[in-house]
Amino acid sequence: xxxxxxxxxxxxxxxxxxxxxxxxxxxxxxxxxxxxxxxxxxxxxxxxxxxxxxxxxxxxxxxxxxxxxxxxxxxxxxxxxxxxxxxxxxxxxxxxxxxxxxxxxxxxxxxxxxxxxxxxxxxxxxxxxxxxxxxxxxxxxxxxxxxxxxxxxxxxxxxxxxxxxxxxxxxxxxxxxxxxxxxxxxxxxxxxxxxxxxxxxxxxxxxxxxxxxxxxxxxxxxxxxxxxxxxxx
Length: 233
Description:
Number of helices: 2
Number of domains: 1
Largest sheet: 3 strands, antiparallel
Radius of gyration: 49 Å
Mean pLDDT: 78
Number of strands: 3
Distance between the termini: 122 Å
């Protein structure tokens, strides 16, 4: 150079090489950063899609399970309703038969009473005609016998009425229990209604309460009575 400065050619070459290397390194780092960002974005997008697909399948599976459970509950409720209606019809038929038998029994008793009264009146007329002491004693005995027969007929009629009412009350209780179970199944389709065996006091049915996963979390005991006032004994 004209300035008269002296320098080593190697220094200029090294500086130029280092500058070029730094530029290439920066370009390479930038390219790698861009490639990493692309791969990172692709991985995020893939994970997001996989998560969305998993959630969608989970929701669809849960919905299908609940739908299937609801359809099964509806089918069971229809069967229970059919059975309840059938038993209610049988109860009404039996109740009508009992009423008819009671009416027939009442008519039979009244006819027998009327017949006995007529016989007694006829015997009394005969005794009045004969006016004999022996006949009077016989009449008294016959009268007591007739009174005893009338009393036995009344007791028999009362016993038949009592048995008829007892059978009607028991059948009505069974129909009422079925109606309670049907009402609970319709109101709580995802819970379970258990029947209680005959002879167990204080319970007609048990409602098993389930959570959203169908797992039991509690039980409620139900008892129904056909009365104006309910007392817990």
